[in-house]
Give the backbone structure.
Amino acid sequence: DAGITQSPRHKVTETGTPVTLRCHQTENHRYMYWYRQDPGHGLRLIHYSYGVKDTDKGEVSDGYSVSRSKTEDFLLTLESATSSQTSVYFCAIGRGAASYGYTFGSGTRLTVV
Amino acid sequence: RKEVEQDPGPFNVPEGATVAFNCTYSNSASQSFFWYRQDCRKEPKLLMSVYSSGNEDGRFTAQLNRASQYISLLIRDSKLSDSATYLCVVNEADTNAGKSTFGDGTTLTVKP
């Protein structure tokens, strides 16, 4: 299952600093997604991409931006990290528009102090 | 009310038991449905899709009831390795993102 990798796996950062998380896939899937998972909220969509340079907002996009300059890479940037962004971040890929299900990366545990 | 609701459990069952989870959804326009399994501190993994006619994969059976707007997952002959959190996922029409909504998950513990 090495078709999707996330980096870093763990990160501690200070409030107010920018943070970039990376998602890399080798499956050549068109669709890529960033989710966050928090207790009591399940998985919530932050941003998604449906092609190179084609991105859109999800349910909880405030404070986040994304970029996709290559099919294989999808970057999530926290512009100025806040404690409320402490979470587990999962990247996912899909060969169709969600109707085929997703493959998730191993996640990034981010702590903002 | 949440768009997708699951009984959080935990469900504690002995090995060999049959256990069933339900997941209700509020959007009648929902078009595709899935069950994922998530082990502690791991990523969710696709367990199975849910089709209108019902579908089975070994010990696992998934069913969809559109009239009552729920999906179910039945696990027969539970194994210790089935212990995990089970997430249901409901998708709206097939837009670019599919507008997937995840339930919060149902925790299953299978005991010897």
Q: What stands out?
A: Chain A touches chain B at residues 31, 33, 40-45, 48, 50, 56, 58, 90, 94, 96-99, 101-107 (CB under 8 Å). Residues 21 and 76 of chain A are 5 Å apart (CA to CA).
